[in-house]
Amino acid sequence: AQTVTQSQPEMSVQEAETVTLSCTYDTSESDYYLFWYKQPPSRQMILVIRQEAYKQQNATENRFSVNFQKAAKSFSLKISDSQLGDAAMYFCAYRSPFFTGNTPLVFGKGTRLSVIA
Amino acid sequence: DAGVTQSPTHLIKTRGQQVTLRCSPKSGHDTVSWYQQALGQGPQFIFQYYEEEERQRGNFPDRFSGHQFPNYSSELNVNALLLGDSALYLCASSPPDNTDTQYFGPGTRLTVL
Hints:
The complex is a heterodimer of chains A (117) and B (113).
Chain A: E1 3-5, E2 10-14, E3 19-21, E4 24-26, E5 33-39, E6 46-52, E7 60-61, E8 64-69, E9 74-79, E10 88-95, E11 106-107, E12 111-116
Parallel strand pairs in A: 2-12
Antiparallel strand pairs in A: 1-4, 3-9, 5-6, 5-10, 7-8, 8-9, 10-11, 10-12
Chain B: E1 5-7, E2 10-13, E3 19-24, E4 31-37, E5 44-50, E6 53-57, E7 64-68, E8 74-78, E9 87-94, E10 103-104, E11 108-112
């Protein structure tokens, strides 16, 4: 079974600075999807960024980018120019490819990010 | 375009009671998944419904059951509630043509006393 590990329970960053959240995962599959979700106090899980394992290019969405190291099974999230609204719980998630069925997400335990004004 | 909606927002029950939570998927989505998120933890997969049938199930007891209606909305039922069932219950929907991404609702906070 796949597992996802987030080793940083809490992180903090100064407003306008850059922060990197870590995530490692364990799988025997060669193709899969990886995600970062943000969960603010409103509780709604919001998709931040996604990465297909077969793509070598790291995904980028505005101020959010990932460093995907397939051999190391590492998938970190970099937030640039941090804003107060970035404060939230961040979850890393893994998903097997669709051809094995509409498979569920496997989540890590999350990292709580605080942004200091 | 309404996103995924869930009702109720909060619910308080006592041990042994039964509860029903509801989810309406995002427009155009036909697959609904349910997750349980205990306090301070990441969500854990309960089960998934597609074409009104349970397609996959996580490691949850039979006290957890569900249903999907022809309009793709879904219900999660929990019988014989235990204190440990207190959690945030999240519903997520996926479209038929892009099933690698799931969209989540705001969740239902269940408290069992």
